[in-house]
Write a structure and sequence with these properties.
335 residues, alpha/beta, 2 domains, Isopropylmalate Dehydrogenase, single chain
Length: 335
């Protein structure tokens, strides 16, 4: 895979000081990967110079004079900063020079600019953010994660179609698609969820299995779980916080007294392995499904390892040619 991936090197809580080393590490992980770092060239070149062994034939710099703040209004980013690193990154995808892009910047601005620059695929009202959440049986593709706080039944249906295609691209055969709800009975849920269920029950070519509750998601009862962005974002952030809290509490308990430390000496290696498997950094990187191009959003506070994970997701989606696969399936199920 020798396609070029564009990186918003100025985005996120830590900016280029974290992103540049993470990108260089990704070049080592993928020997055929090419990256273009978009941002303030003098800053980026200075940071790259700290890594004299980097292959500059695979690492380019594209100057962009402006930066979109993490708390900046999307409308201002859209209208007032034509030379922002995020926008220049997206323009590289639109022109075809880059096959995908990754940003840890302002989520609202990234969504607004992605819609404006790349445009949705035919049949899609708005893109949805999706990520793979670890479950007892592997992973579940959860969407939307916050791009669309209020959703119609038709949009939830569109999310289900896109999530199913994304799961298929990851090798899942006939992905089980479910709607996240407060119960599994048909009478449960708000009006939008009930209407979406009716649409999905009539869909040909989707393996819709009905409603699933939050605990069912983690038991692996479905391969794709659909909800609006308000619910999805709260679920994801709560899950990340719970994993961290349980891990910290267990380590603290194993340090309480001699017997506990002795037990911990045996158990902690296994617990650390489990924490590594469930760590948010390993699963960082949410895709904006439904655009005419590949856009991956990294968590703004992600570590270097987490940003590498987001780049890894972009590499996979380029390899799987995900927008084209989506377009083909959407023609069958939506148009």
């Amino acid at each position: 895979m020798s396609a070029l991936i564009a990186i918003d090197a100025m985005g996120g809580d830590f900016g280029p000081h974290l992103i540049v080393p993470a990108c260089i590490a990704s070049l080592v992980e993928f020997p055929s990967l090419h990256l273009v770092l978009v941002g303030q060239a003098p800053v980026l070149e200075e940071l790259i110079a700290l890594h004299p062994g980097v292959d500059r034939a695979r690492l380019q710099v594209e100057h962009a004079s402006e930066v979109i703040g993490m708390d900046e209004r999307p409308t201002h980013a859209l209208r007032g900063k034509p030379d922002a690193s995020m926008r220049v990154m997206l323009e590289l995808v639109r022109s075809g020079r880059a096959k995908a892009c990754v940003s840890a910047g302002n989520t609202g601005a990234l969504m607004a600019l992605s819609l404006y620059v790349l445009k949705p695929l035919p049949g899609i009202d708005r893109p949805a953010m999706v990520t793979a959440v670890p479950t007892a049986r592997g992973v579940c593709h959860l969407l939307d994660l916050g791009a669309n706080v209020d959703c119609s039944a038709e949009q939830l249906y569109q999310f289900a179609v896109m999530g199913s295609v994304a799961a298929e691209a990851q090798g899942v055969v006939r992905p089980r698609v479910a709607l996240l709800n407060v119960g599994t009975e048909n009478i449960k849920g708000n009006q939008q969820v009930k209407l979406a269920a009716s649409l999905l029950q009539q869909a040909q070519g989707l393996n819709y299995i009905g409603f699933v509750e939050g605990d069912g998601l983690y038991r692996g009862e479905a391969d794709v779980v659909v909800c609006d962005g308000f619910v999805g974002n709260i679920l994801l952030k709560s899950s990340e916080g719970l994993v961290s809290m349980i891990s910290e509490r267990i380590e603290a308990l194993f340090n309480e007294g001699f017997v506990s430390r002795l037990a911990g000496a045996v158990a902690l290696p296994l617990l650390k392995r489990l924490r590594g498997e469930l760590a948010p950094a390993r699963h960082n990187g949410a895709s904006f499904l439904g655009l005419q191009g590949i856009v991956v959003k990294s968590h703004g506070a992600a570590s270097g390892e987490g940003f590498q994970s987001a780049i890894r997701r972009a590499v996979i989606e380029v390899r799987e040619n995900l927008p084209q696969r989506l377009h083909g399936r959407l023609e069958d199920l939506l148009l």
